[in-house]
Specification:
This protein is of the alpha+beta class. The chain has one domain: Up-down Bundle (Outer membrane efflux proteins (OEP)). The protein has 10 helices and 7 strands. Strands 2, 3, 5, 6 and 7 form a 5-stranded antiparallel beta sheet that branches. Strands 1-4 form a two-stranded parallel ribbon.
Length: about 475
Amino acid sequence: MKKHLVSFLLVGSGIVLLNGCISVGPDYEQPETPMPDAWHEAVQEEFESGDPDLQTWWTVFGDETLNGLITKASTNNLTLKTAAARIEQAAALRGVSASQYWPDIVAGGAASAVKTTPVQGDYEGGLYQAGLSMAWELDLWGRVRRSVESADATLQASIENYRDILVVLYADIARNYIDVRTLQARITFAENNLKAQLKTMTLTKNRFDSGLVPALDVSQSQLNRFRTESQIPPLKQSLIEAINRLSVLTGDMPYALLQELETQDSKIPRSTGKQIARGLPADLLRQRPDIRRAERELASQNAKIGATQAELYPTLTLPGTLSVQSLGSGGGDVTDGFGPQLRWNIFNGKRIRSQVAAEEAGTKAALYVYEQTILLALEEVEDSMAAYANEQDRVVSLEAAAVAAEKSVALVTELYKSGLTDFQNVLNMEQALLVQQDALASSRGLISLDLVGIYKSLGGGWAPPEEDSTE
């Protein structure tokens, strides 16, 4: 028994040395993609050279509430947890592919009661059988190796997908948080204007009661008051929606953050730094997870060509059996068998060749997706930097306009009290003040949103390992 088992194992172990030296199909090479040497000159003055600090970019706002929301989402966000589960799934499927390197060995046994006839010799008792069977496909043409190569790349792509979700998640949290603070600032401006317009309405009533102005002034002041009042509920609704969105992003129920965010300072987050380091366009290939994911998906698809092409060649399988059969408790008969089996798809109506062609076309499509992802990334960075630079210029004008509008309201009100101007000028200036202050709050929020857009477009929110091989 031991002799047969040793022979079985020795023969099986020996074929490891023969188990494949050739991998058919194209070997993968990362595409060389031309990248611009620098970003567009029109926005260079807004950004300094050097490598940007991208891993914890949100700290540039110096807002502890925002920092806490990011930390909470890192552990509680369900989309992020789903992506982590996808990594586990891809790792397990990689193990399924790698298992084909090894033989399938099955153990079996049976016991039954038998009774023989006199012709065969009288026997009544048990029949016992036990054995092993093995089937080992030699990976002569690299089908298994290409399958594992594809599974490895798919696993890496799932990791990049997780990182991409991190990038998008952190940007979404920052954007919604900035929206919350911007809406709160707009509501504050609207409510302050409403209070001033209520005073103006009282003023017109008093002057009307004194016979100094016509009833038209009272009606116009009421129109102005109610028009301003009507703008506040939609702002409050948008505020609730932004808070609800933040709550869900951090893994909570809607309204979970309502009290916390309503009772805190509504100041719009602003960058505490000076100029932003812009890096180089070529850095995107290493930093942007969506580009890295597209490249890994291309590598996975490329490996599928060889895995399919290997089916055009003969398959050599080494089967083996080892069994013991015994009647009763005495000695048993041992049988074993070894011998290679050859299988070759000589004709299949070009099915395999068509599958190879399909995988080649899929690889071509994956390459185009990779190149398109790079172009979209470059576009996103350019757009976000230009938006940030232009909004910086716009907010300067809006700040000056808001100051001028505030002074104009004070001056025209005094003139109206003195009877030196009609109420239409007061009405126009109050409306202009509300418009300018609302636009100013929106612009301040846009500057911060554009800054978030820059960091997102650069792939901020994580740091590639130093030994990264995808550079």
